[in-house]
Amino acid sequence: MAYWLFKSEPSTWSWDDQVAxxxxxxxxxxxxxYQARNNMRAMRLGDRGFFYHSLSEKAVVxxxxxxAEAHPDSKADDPRxxxxxxxxxxxxxxxxxxxxxxxxxxxxxxxxxxNSRLSxxxxxxxxxRIVCEMGGL
Length: 137
Known about the structure:
Distance between the termini: 18 Å
Mean pLDDT: 96
Helix content: 10-25%
Low-confidence stretches: none
Number of helices: 5
Strand content: 35-45%
CATH topology: ph1033 like fold
Number of strands: 6
Largest sheet: 6 strands, mixed
CATH superfamily: ph1033 like domains
CATH architecture: Roll
Strand order of the largest sheet: 2-5-4-3-1-6
Structural class: alpha+beta
Oligomer: single chain
Radius of gyration: 14 Å
């Protein structure tokens, strides 16, 4: 299993919106960055990801699961853009902020810490464990 991080502005698509979709999940659409798209192309069913609220909150707030591998983005007119479908698995008992991640020396190499603009990014096994621990899991 691989681990990922999905960033969303809460005013556009929030953790609560994701939870409301239930087991049906939702397309992670609208990604228009090649690196982020390629990350989604590498995802497999059952991979897990952090759901991250960007902008004002800047925090990991939940865990999601990939329920459909890369396929054409239904909201794109250009076939180059693909997405995966994800469903909510569980909230983090305590949100883990970007500031907390930056303050944790073991997360110094985390993509979120070094390239916080990338909307879909990989997370290593160790980073996953550390963030889960910080979030109360």
